[in-house]
């Protein structure tokens, strides 16, 4: 034993010291109890934390399992779609050539029908024959050559102005025809040949003149006819209907001279080049006339009535010879001989 211990055992404690000793002992016990409580609380928190971590790990694993299961049907659907696309592409590659081969073998690849519209004079059979289009022959080849077919028709029939060939069905063609208007007729050797609006004189002839078109006579070449028709088309429909006959009466001094015989009985002398510009005055002049006669529009405008003792032809010739005179009458053949 130490010296202090021996002294403490030997020396009795006072009441105050005993009380202080009990206080210190109690305090030590309380502090020890608190330390134990803190340790137990920390242990509980650690246990709870460990349990939470375990729960989180389990939840995460469960969520991973659920999300994978959710993705599995979508992945399966995606693969199915990809498979369908690939199969469709392969089938398409195989089907298209089969369809094309089937089409060219079928009757739909051959020309099945030809329709003609717009023709007035040239018959449908004549147009189809001139086109060289053939039924039951390769449709697309003939369709590609449609411009050549149209040209063949226009070349064979000058009456036809244009031909438009269009596809109207899977194997059908339509020929839309436009014909030139028949605007006049050329009198030659007792027959009459149609003259088109293009100035073309057709080779076909007829014995009787048509009452619908003006008659051209004494013309010797196509240039004269074309120039006259060009001017004639510039006239109003009323003036065109008023002219019955146009005669080419060229002289050494004037190779453009025309005699126009009107339906109202008058005769007009005019040049080819100023036919349209001069004839626009005719309705007013004819309205002011008191008797039938010759109206000379070659140079200026002069009028001379017919004389009863001469024919209209002789009067017209005399008027042409005296256009530079200021007299208002045309002398007869007998008076010219006397002079």
Automatic annotation (TrEMBL):
Pfam families: FtsQ_DivIB_C, POTRA_1. It is found in: Cell membrane; Membrane. Residues 25-35, 42-51 have a biased composition (Basic and acidic residues). Residues 308-339 have a biased composition (Low complexity). Residues 109-180 form the POTRA domain. Keywords: Cell cycle, Cell division, Cell membrane, Membrane, Transmembrane, Transmembrane helix. Cell division protein that may be involved in stabilizing or promoting the assembly of the division complex. PANTHER family: CELL DIVISION PROTEIN DIVIB (PTHR37820), CELL DIVISION PROTEIN FTSQ (PTHR37820:SF1). This is Cell division protein DivIB. It comes from Enterococcus italicus (strain DSM 15952 / CCUG 50447 / LMG 22039 / TP 1.5). The lineage of its organism: Bacteria, Bacillati, Bacillota, Bacilli, Lactobacillales.
């Amino acid at each position: 034993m130490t010296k202090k211990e021996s002294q403490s055992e030997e020396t009795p404690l006072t009441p105050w010291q005993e009380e202080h000793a009990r206080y210190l002992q109690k305090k030590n016990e309380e502090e020890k109890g608190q330390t134990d409580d803190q340790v137990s609380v920390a242990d509980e928190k650690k246990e709870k934390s460990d349990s939470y971590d375990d729960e989180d790990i389990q939840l995460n694993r469960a969520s991973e399992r659920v999300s994978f299961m959710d993705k599995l049907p979508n992945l399966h659907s995606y693969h199915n779609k990809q498979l369908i696309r690939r199969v469709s592409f392969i089938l398409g590659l195989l089907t298209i050539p089969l369809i094309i081969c089937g089409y060219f073998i079928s009757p739909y690849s051959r020309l099945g029908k030809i329709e003609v519209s717009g023709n007035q004079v040239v018959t449908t059979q004549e147009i189809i024959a001139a086109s060289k289009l053939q039924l039951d022959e390769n449709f697309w080849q003939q369709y590609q050559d449609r411009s050549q077919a149209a040209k063949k028709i226009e070349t064979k029939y000058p009456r036809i102005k244009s031909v438009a060939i269009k596809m109207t069905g899977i194997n059908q063609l339509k020929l839309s025809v436009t014909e030139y208007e028949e605007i006049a007729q050329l009198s030659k050797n007792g027959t009459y040949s149609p003259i088109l609006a293009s100035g073309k004189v057709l080779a076909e002839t007829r014995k009787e003149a048509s009452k619908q078109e003006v008659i051209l006579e004494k013309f010797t070449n196509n240039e004269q006819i074309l120039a006259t028709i060009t001017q004639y088309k510039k006239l109003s429909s009323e003036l065109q209907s008023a002219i019955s006959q146009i005669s080419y009466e060229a002289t050494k001094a004037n190779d453009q001279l025309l005699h126009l015989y009107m339906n109202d009985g008058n005769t007009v002398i005019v040049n080819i080049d100023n036919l349209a510009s001069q004839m626009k005055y005719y309705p007013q002049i004819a309205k002011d006339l008191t008797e039938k006669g010759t109206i000379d529009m070659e140079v200026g405008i002069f009028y001379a009535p017919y004389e009863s003792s001469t024919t209209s032809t002789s009067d017209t010739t005399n008027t042409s010879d005296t256009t530079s005179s200021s007299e208002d009458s045309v002398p007869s053949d007998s008076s010219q001989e006397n002079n």
